[in-house]
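Teaching assistant's notes for section 4

Start the section by putting this record on the projector. Ask students to predict, before seeing the second block, whether Protein PsiE will look compact or extended. Collect guesses on the board.
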Amino acid sequence: MLKQIRNKWPILRISVILQIVLNTALILLAIILSVLLVKEIVYLISVSVFNPGIDIYYELLERIMVFFLYFEFIAMIVKYFQEEYHFPIRYFLYIGITAMIRLIIVYHENPVHTLLFSLAILVLIIGFYIMNSVTGRTGKY
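Reveal the predicted structure now:
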C-alpha cells in the first residue's frame, strides 16, 4: 500500500503544481477582464451622458456586446472556482452565441456571411437545448 502511494506521488505533485499555475493564470485573467469591464462601463456612461445624440449606433452596440463578452468570461471563471475546478459547457455556449451576435452586428454587409453566422447561432442553440434536455433527464448540471 505504501509503495503504491510512493509511486503516485510524483504524478500527484505535478497535478497540484499545474492546478496552482492554472488557478493563478485564471485569477490574473479575471483581474484583467474586470479592468476591461470597468473600462467599457466608463465608455458607455461617457457616451450616453456626453453624446446623447450619438450617430454611431453600431459602434455603441458593438461595445455593449463586448461588455457582455467580458461579463460572461468573468462569470465563467467564477463558476470554475465554485464548481471545484470545472468549466460548465453552457458558459462556452453563451459566449459563442454572444460572439456570433456581435459578428452579425459588426459585419453585416455580406448577406452570405450573415446567414452563416445565423446558422452558427442556430447550431449553438440546438447544442444548448440538447445539453439541457440530457442533463434534465440525468439530473446532472
